[in-house]
Specification:
18 helices, globular, binds adenosine-5'-triphosphate, single chain, 19 strands, Rossmann fold, 3 domains, hydrolase
Length: about 550
């Protein structure tokens, strides 16, 4: 594909902003202090789009990214777009793509015209839903192909039903390209969109994406428009992105010069506590949100690994009983149907807590999230920004808190995180919490996951391997409730060696980890979350992931 310089197209915000009309599904609460700075004074009613699209759009005023990209999108030029989280990027790419499609003669039903790639299943489904809404006045139809759901049903639907817009996760799309004649349906696509482009273009997804691109006709045969969107686009990613765009592509950013891409109106704080107190601190922060928002308190608690998420969810359920809203959990080791069920329940809840791994860190639009709480190190500064972006969306208010141990708080001094305005949290009264009753199996898995993930950050934290292992063991004893105070949970010898802590005192290395309840690991063959970004090591990912971040887990590097 062509490579070349982009026209920098920094969007100049308008001074004559008007308050937006509330959207249908994300209306600010009465009396809520909202932030309208990313809405423009341009109404969809006055925008250069068809009456059909005007009727379908549930909003009144365009956001800055929507205004900045509408005409460019309609012109068919390639776009690389960066705009803050929750500012309506989905409609920004869908709307011009649908409009361009509407200008053509209705394509035969066997042809896909718009292909949207998303890194996670939940996000793909959310995009499908938004596209469904936007085409309800058009004769177009939307389908999705995502991992973890019935592939035969997806094949049947693709063969028998109209599909103008296809939303896909990369792994499942590639499976279908390899096993069906889907390639034929994609030969004339008019628009290709990479949502969360930096995630799709990173090392984890790149091999899959390259294979997918090999199935698409080259751009001389198929002069399609390519649009890449994300809230985070590092200079490196911009260079990679340019390889997939035509030389005359436009780079649009709604971020001001030197502006950090978290919202200024979102207060961000850090609680620094010893690892033994992390659950207590989490309960205290969640209780503060309940005090502030009453039965409208809706929080997301981000953890670093799937098993750490599961353990934290169970500990919070018990510790917050009677004082905190209902606790849900979501991570990559759950079945897809359970993941979908949980996401729907949390979306519909007025007050709830979602304890989650990074499968919901990007793009997910749960209405009314009042607090994003991050427990432990995020995988990268980008991931911190995307997680925080689950609150204060579409002009609403929200806040973020991160809980770190004293060594983990070195994170805040890294060049990537330094510009982000995170203040020390006001002193907390830590509640007492009941003793853990996690199963031994979950304790072993969460301990192994903690080691696998955090090992990548030893250098960033500036701690010795011994101190690191001591900290892991305190996590096992004081947080997970591992009963044997002399011998920590077992970890496979090979795993310990691979992650570089094989010979360290305090590691209980065994040839094979036996799980008391059930022999063998419950690990699915699905994506694993892993750490990267601040640490000294680069991630090594499986070549065909389907969702968000991936963890090394036992036996693989973090
Ligand atoms: N013009 C608009 N006016 C009001 N609300 C809008 C508008 N456009 C989009 N929204 C709403 O804003 C919310 C966030 O939109 P969306 O999920 O597309 O944001 P995003 O920029 O893609 O976020 P992320 O970076 O997290 O992926 C959604 O609830 C959407 O319906």
């Amino acid at each position: 594909m062509a490579r070349g310089p982009a026209t920098a197209h920094a969007f100049k915000p308008r001074l004559d902003r008007l308050p937006p009309a509330p959207s249908q599904n994300n209306e600010p609460e009465f009396g809520e202090r909202t932030n309208q700075s990313h809405f423009t004074s341009m109404r969809f009613a006055d925008a250069p789009i068809s009456e059909k699209s005007k009727m379908a759009i549930p909003h009144q005023y365009l956001t800055d990214v929507q205004e900045a990209t509408l005409e460019l999108g309609l012109s068919g030029v390639d776009l690389l777009v960066q705009a803050k989280t929750g500012t309506g990027k989905t409609a920004a790419f869908l709307l011009p793509a649908i409009e361009r499609l509407a200008k053509r003669r209705l394509p035969p039903s066997g042809n896909v015209s718009i292909l949207v790639l998303s890194p996670t299943r939940e996000l793909a489904m959310q995009i499908q839903k938004e596209a469904d809404g936007l085409v309800r006045t058009h004769p177009f139809s939307v389908q999705s192909v995502i991992g973890g759901s019935d592939i035969n049903q997806q094949k049947r639907k693709l063969t028998t039903q109209r599909c103008d817009i296809l939303v896909a996760t990369p792994g499942r799309l590639l499976d279908l390209l390899e096993s069906t004649d889907l390639r034929r349906k994609l030969h004339g696509i008019q628009t290709l969109v990479l949502d969360e482009a930096d995630r799709l273009l990173d090392q984890g997804f790149m091999p899959t994406l390259k294979s997918i691109f090999n199935f698409l006709p080259n751009r001389e045969e198929n002069p399609r428009q390519c649009m890449l969107y994300s809230a985070t686009l590092s200079e490196d990613i911009k260079k990679v992105a340019a390889l997939y765009l035509t030389p005359d592509y436009e780079f649009v950013s709604t971020l001001g010069e030197d502006e950090v891409n978290t919202h200024q109106h979102v207060p961000q704080t850090c609680v620094t506590v010893p690892i033994s107190d992390t659950i207590k601190a989490a309960v205290a922060v969640l209780q503060e949100d309940v005090l502030e928002h009453g039965n409208r308190s809706k929080s997301m608690v981000f953890c670093t690994t799937a098993m750490g998420t599961s353990a934290t969810a169970q500990l919070l359920k018990k510790a917050g009983y009677g004082t905190l809203p209902q606790v849900f959990e979501i991570h990559s080791r759950m079945t897809q149907s359970k993941r979908l069920w949980t996401a729907q329940k949390f979306r519909a809840a007025t007050s709830a807590i979602l304890v989650t791994s990074d499968v919901t860190a990007r793009g997910m639009d749960f209405p009314g999230v009042t607090l994003v709480l991050q427990v432990g190190l995020p995988a990268s500064s980008e991931q911190y920004i995307h997680r925080l972006g689950r609150t204060a969306r579409a002009g609403r208010s929200g806040k973020g808190t991160i809980i770190l141990t004293p060594s983990e708080s070195a994170l805040l001094r890294t060049p990537e995180m330094k510009p982000i305005p995170i203040q020390a949290h006001p002193p907390l009264q830590l509640p007492s919490v009941p003793a853990s009753d996690l199963t031994k199996k979950l304790q072993i898995q969460a301990y192994g996951a903690w080691l696998g993930f955090n090992t990548a950050f030893i250098r960033m934290m500036g701690v010795s391997k011994q101190k690191f292992v001591d900290e892991a063991n305190r996590y096992a004893w004081d947080v997970l409730g591992w009963a044997d105070k002399h011998v920590p949970p077992p970890i496979a010898r090979r795993t310990a060696q691979v992650i570089g802590i094989g010979g360290v005192k305090g590691i209980n290395a065994v040839s094979r980890v036996e799980y008391p309840e059930d022999e063998g690991s419950s690990r699915s063959d699905e994506e694993r979350e892993r750490g990267f970004g601040f640490g000294s090591r680069q991630p090594q990912r499986s070549s065909r992931p389907n969702t968000g971040s991936h963890w090394a887990g036992q036996g693989r590097r973090g």
